[in-house]
Design a protein that fits this description.
Layout lengths: L1 H16 L16 E2 L23 E2 L22 E2 L8 E5 L7 H15 L4 E5 L4 E4 L21 E10 L5 E12 L7 H34 L4 E5 L5 E5 L3 H14 L2 E7 L4 E6 L6 H6 L11 E9 L5 E7 L7 H18 L3
Antiparallel strand pairs: 1-2, 3-4, 4-8, 5-6, 6-7, 7-8, 9-10, 10-14, 11-12, 12-13, 13-14
Helix pairs in contact: 2-3
Protein name: Outer membrane protein assembly factor BamC
InterPro entries: BamC_C, NlpB/DapX
């Protein structure tokens, strides 16, 4: 036992006197090479023996790697209805499809460009109608960092952008390209990655403005049309159905908006098959909702999944046939009760 303790102490002393750090992660990497001066043994003591094969030159290298930017490129956000991008597109570009209610697609896009520039604190400086291009004034997309209230905050950089509109021959699709044409900064050099991020930021600002203006247009249209009316009727197969006072082209948007206000969640809309999958969660009574007037009236159907089949009617309305989660048609009595419940709920919630 005493022999083992003496051996362990001897090994520990040898390791401490070796001056070599051996418990380092990735020790063989040049960045981690470090060999210190060996301990100076007093002349009265005998220095430990060392195998020359393991002798290391005294040195410590500061071979730090160049910093690598791992920030990914900016992405175009297609938040507006009818906007999309082409996969693998190397140009900051977004496509717009002509939505219902829009009469002139290019005019709507230019209106969004002007609105976005005004929000950013600038406006169009030059315009070329023949090339369908506009160039913005100076704008600071990157805001200055917060500082003390007495400090004069200055944006790190300012930019100018060119927006180019390309419209397809059928006039129902157009694309908008953003390009950085001028840049000035005393502290931040312009790199390819920064250029791409700035261009996409400018494009996303236009998409967000387009989304806001289109939602405002839809709200005005719904306000003009008034509340959605529901009546009891029959589909072409003679099944009991609900007739909505809105044409087939607009029924999906109007109906989904109304149902979401009445405790439905819209899971899937298939315009090609003219179906809508929804789930109904019957609201629970809440004292606070009744006090503040936010309670949602319950409909005379059970909580669960439903499928709505929609068809156009000859008089311009839409016929909605309801099926439960098992694919069974709702009977006439249930459809009549549902129609009365929808009418009362729409009036109580003032849903358009």
């Amino acid at each position: 036992m005493q022999y083992w303790i003496k051996s362990s102490l001897a090994v520990g002393v040898l390791l401490s006197l070796s001056g070599c750090s051996i418990f380092i992660n990735d020790a063989h990497h040049p960045r981690n090479y470090r060999a210190n001066q060996p301990v100076q043994v007093p002349a009265s003591l005998q220095a430990p023996s060392q195998d020359p094969d393991f002798k290391m030159d005294v040195a410590q290298y500061q071979a730090a790697e160049e910093p690598i930017g791992y920030r990914p490129p900016q992405q175009v956000l297609t938040v507006a209805q009818g906007t999309w991008i082409e996969e693998g597109d190397k140009v900051p570009r977004v496509f717009f499809d002509k939505n219902d209610g829009i009469t002139d697609l290019s005019a709507s896009i230019w209106q969004a460009v002007n609105g976005a520039l005004q929000t950013l604190g600038t406006q169009v400086s030059t315009k070329d109608e023949a090339k369908r291009e506009v160039v913005s004034g100076w704008v600071a997309l990157i805001k200055p960092a917060d500082g003390w209230f007495w400090e004069d905050l200055k944006a790190p950089s300012e930019q100018k952008f060119k927006f180019t509109l390309v419209q397809q021959e059928h006039q129902r699709t157009a694309s908008l390209i953003a390009e950085l044409v001028d840049y000035r900064s005393d502290d931040v050099p312009l790199t390819d990655l920064l250029k791409q991020q700035l261009e996409v930021r400018a494009l996303n600002a236009v998409v967000a403005e387009y989304d806001y203006e289109y939602r405002l247009l839809q709200s005005n249209v719904r306000r003009t049309e008034g509340q959605l009316a529901f009546n009891v009727g029959f589909d072409k197969a003679g099944n009991a159905a609900i007739v909505a006072s809105v044409p087939f082209e607009r029924v999906f948007d109007r109906l989904s908006t109304v149902l979401e206000e009445l405790s439905f969640s819209v899971d899937k809309i298939n315009v090609d098959e003219a179906t809508m999958n929804v789930r109904y969660d019957k609201p629970t009574d809440s004292v606070w909702d009744s006090i503040w007037g936010d309670d949602t009236p319950a409909l005379p159907i059970e909580s669960g999944e439903y499928q709505l089949s929609i068809a156009a009617n000859q008089d311009g309305s839409s016929v909605i046939t309801w099926r439960d989660g098992k694919g069974q048609l709702l009977d006439t009595a249930t459809v009549q009760a549902l129609q009365q419940g929808l009418l009362a709920a729409v009036q109580q919630k003032d849903v358009n």
